[in-house]
Every structure is written in structure tokens, then in C-alpha cells.
Amino acid sequence: MSTLRSSVLLQHDADTVWAVVRDTSAVSRWFPAITSSSGEAHRRTVVLADGSTLVEDIVTLDDDLRRMQYSAVDGDLPIDRHLGTVDVFDLGDGRSFLVYSTEITPDSFAGAFHSAIDEAVAHLPAHLG
């Protein structure tokens, strides 16, 4: 299993960042490798830039901890095990820190997922304005 981690310091308060992350069905708005997304509070479907579709269960959506976890459970990619975790930490003074971690098997997906997550995390400040 591969473990990936990306992070970014944001000049936005944690509640503002969390509002973006917790809107799980709208992940395509800030994650460039996802061309469209739809769903509900507990399940979403994402379409990747290459046209592949993933169905993801929302495992955790904790407003107190500002933690969202999801797991790819179906779709076009032969993923054996997957858990994505996004944590938003309040640093005070209108700043926050976002950490995006992923565990994935098979390891052959690690490079592509890590690149996509790095790109999304780097894009988040521009999305927030």
C-alpha cells in the first residue's frame, strides 16, 4: 500500500476552507483532475480527466474536526483499497492548514494519484480567491 500526503498553508480561515471541502459533490470545482462530480452526503461519483469514473463513499464528514474521508468503492479503475483524508486546521489570524492524505493499493496508482492531489492542493488558494 502506498501512502501519499500533500499540504498547503492558506491565507483563509478554516471555516471558509472547510465549507469548500465538506461540499463533497462539488469536488470538481477545486480538483483539476476531476472534470465533473455529483452525489449526495454519503456517496459521490467523479469523472477524471481521462474519462474514468470512480464511485466514492464518504466515510467521515466531521464538522468539529473539519475532517472528510472518502473511499473509492467502484468505477473504471481496478483499485483494491483506497482511503482519502482531508483535514483542515485552524491556525488563527484568518489562516488555516490543509493536509490531504491518501492510502491506495495497488501501488501502481500512487504516482498518478499523488500528482493529481498535489495539483489540487496547489490550486486551492486560487480557487478560494
UniProtKB/TrEMBL annotation:
Pfam families: Polyketide_cyc2 (PF10604). Signal peptide: none annotated. It comes from the Bacteria. InterPro entries: Polyketide_cyclase/dehydratase (IPR019587), START-like_dom_sf (IPR023393). This is SRPBCC family protein. It comes from Gordonia hydrophobica.
